[in-house]
Amino acid sequence: MNELQIILQQGEGYKIEFKEKLAHLDREIVAFANAAGGSVYLGVDDAGKVVGIDICNKLKSQVTDIAHNCDPSIKVELISYGNVLEVRVAEGGDKPYRCKDGFFLRMGPNSQKLRRDDIVVLITNSSKIQFDETLNPKFSFPGDFSQQSYHEFLNLCDIQTKLPAQDVLQSLSVAHKDASKLVLNNTGILFFAKEPQKLYPEGYITAVRYKSQDRFSIIDKQDYKGSLIQQIEQALTFIQRHTAVAINVVAQSPVHEEIHEYPLVALREAVINAVVHRDYNYDGSHIYIHIYPDKIEIENPGGLYHGLTIASLGQRSVRRNRLIADLLHRAGYIERVGSGFDRMRQALQQNNNPPLEVSATNFFNIRFYKKLATDKLSALTQRQQRLYQFVEQRKTITIGEAAMALGCSNDTALRELNVLLQQDLLTKLGRGKATSYILLKKDT
Question: What are the structural domains of the chain?
Answer without folding.
Answer: 2-127 (3.30.950.30), 147-195 (no CATH), 205-369 (3.30.565.60), 379-439 (1.10.10.10)
